[in-house]
Amino acid sequence: MRRAAVGGVVGLACAVLTLGSTTPGMAVPATAVASPPVSAVDWRPCPAYSDEVIAGLGATGEQIPRFRAQLKRLECGTISVPLDYRRPAGRKISIAVTRLGAVDPGHRLGALAMAPGGPGGSGYLDPIRMTLRNKEIARLNDRYDLIGFDPRGVNYSTKTSCEGAPPPHVGPGPLTKASAKRIYEAMAADNTACGRSDPAFLGQLTTANVARDLDRVRAALGERRLNILGFSWGTWLGAVYRSLFPGRTGRVFLDSPAPPYTSFAEHDEGVAEATERNFARMAAWLARYDTTYGLGTTAQQVRAAVLKLRHDYDAAPKTFTDLKATIDGASIAQLAGKTSPEWPQAGRALAELRGATGSQAPPTVKEIFGAEPAPPVPGAPEMTNMTMNRATICNEDQSRLGFSAAWAVYQKRLEREPVTAFYFGAGCAGWPLPAQQTRVHRTGGSLVLSGHRYDTMSAYKWTLQTQAAIGGKVYTVDDDVHVSATRVPECAVDVVAYFTTGRIDNGCDGEPVPTP
Asked: Residues of the signal sequence (predicted)?
């Protein structure tokens, strides 16, 4: 299934993409840029959404009335900020802001900003979505104003667009060096075209500038300090904000921390290592339920069976009449790289593919690889802006590997992670704008780093590396589910207790591993 095996920067959207060149222990001082006058919030009516849009945002049928009730409480507005903080009197852009006021204003503790994932994720409706997640995490709103915002380049904030071109089609089976070179050159050319489409705006899409925008939000709201709850890339944003504005930062909880460096190549390597490591857990789980999946009674037997399956499908890819995609070794690697909530489905697909015959795809295989993306719902807000994703990553990335280096990295990855590795892309090759350094350092103040022991999108070792670079307390979630700390009730209780008291224990069990 080669379409999933190759791509450029946009192929990694919504992972913890914190890319660029960073030196731990250093910081971009807040005084490095001029302080523009503070813009007041231009409050205005919030957007109206249909039930279909609200359902698409993750609200179940019974939650839709609750969403609408919270939407009535939500305040929506914009602030004006400089596009380039080195030129505060120059071009201005608009940042979209929301506020869900504390339910108990008499015991209010302050403002708590949601720092969304991505880069490129929208946080505009996060205050409402947080209150609907579960009753435990909803208590954050009892004593805190919940602040949402769209980073520059996203949704209702000022943005631009350069749609990424799909990688060139190559045949199924193992990727050849010649095909990889075609992919690399096409993606590098696409990066170049995107970067040149609006360089004045795209060049200012950086984590540091988003942090400066967030501090303008703080000032416009009249808050002396800003507390932060960051997710995925939002953890990097939180770390950068804390380094730039230590005196304006309150309590900070960062879930699934990014590493304290920003190299595309190093980030990609960390994800690949963590994914292969987590497959060992999946193999043990599949062995425990061998009567269901038939892949082996030990983790070693399961690993051998899946590796053989990958080699078999690379040697003889299968095309089914009811699937657009051809199933090859990369398809097997994708299934083996799933996290625990998807193990039952992935296990069924692997079992089906062991003995697949006939012209039609087995049911679970079709369910996974034949799913079509849902059409956009009219009036829906933009949840991820891929132009902002690419620009922010590439503006901070100094790795920008040439083809020979990228091909060598790919070959080593296949050797080190033979079951789950399949991704090849150009990264930020060809990006025409200069790389900008983003640095973080230790400061005073309260900080919790919520690392997930088996997370594949944000390797647990990054939590420890981040702690070494910026300090803070590690809170370990014993699962492989990215940013689950606010979703699991037992963990959510701890998150609320931290923001209420400043204290937290050492971790929680996290998302339970399912049964077949």
From this structure: 1-27
DSSP conformation class of 105: G
User: pTM, whole model, 2 decimals?
Assistant: 0.93
Give the domain CATH number at 221. Answer: 3.40.50.1820
d(C-alpha 344, C-alpha 328), whole Å: 21
pLDDT, tens only, 306-318: 999 999 999 999 9
Distance from chain centroid for Cα 384: 10
Tokens of 319: 């095309």
Cβ count near 34 (within 10 Å): 11
Q: Which residues contact 65 (CB under 8 A, 6 or more apart)?
A: none
As a whole number of angstroms, the distance between CA 188 and CA 400 comes to 10
Could you give the number of structural domains in the chain? 1
* Domain range enclosing 154: 1-516
Alpha carbon of residue 437 to chain centroid: 21
Provide the token pair at 169: 């089609």
pLDDT tens, position by position, 152-187:
999 999 999 998 788 888 889 999 999 999 999 999
Place 437 in a pLDDT band, splitting at 50, 70 and 90.
confident
Angle between helices 299-315 and 329-336 (to 10 degrees): 150
Q: What is the 3-state secondary structure (H, E, C) of 12-74?
A: HCCCCCCCCCCCCCCCCCHHHCCCCCCCCCEEECCCCCCHHHHHHCCCCHHHHHHHHHHHHHC
